[in-house]
Design goal:
With about 180 residues, this protein is an alpha/beta fold. Helix content is about 40%, strand content about 30%. Strands 1, 2, 3, 4, 5, 6 and 7 form a seven-stranded mixed sheet that branches. Helix 3 runs parallel beside helix 5.
Length: about 180
Amino acid sequence: MQKIILVLLCLCLGCASAKTKEPPPQAPLTSFKILNEASLQKGGKLLIAPFRAGVNVEANEELNKIALMVVKGITEAIKEQGENNFEILSYAQAQEADLMIEGHITKLTKPSRMNRMGLGDQKISLGLEGNMVNLETGEKALIFSDLDERGQKGNTHQDLAYAMGRAIGQAIAAGINKTE
């Protein structure tokens, strides 16, 4: 009986001490270019649309989750900057938007079954591209793209999407601060 209690206690303590998973470190974006500083500086009500499947990327439930993680990363990074010129809107408020971030997932790869068995490259990759559009004028305020490839161990596409979204949000915030 004491052995069972000891085993249960060890299991409970082991589970309680498990660390929460942190997202992979953020790398700088592959490409980020401000096209219209005035729109970015003015700010306004911002809608961040979930990224859609690009060419040669299958639209499915996994892609939807990945797309939402990009949105979450962008949203959190912009909100963390404190005072900025953007009010981030929910989809229910979409009609009020002045600006919109939209994009596509351009690459989504994972190792083949043979590679997952240890017989080859075990990397996953995620690529995205997008822009921020001034909805009043139709002009693009900025464009960006990114491609990240990492070892599969400890990383998921959702982790990469979140980190990439944060990098996009931080680049937008840095662009605002740079133009002030």
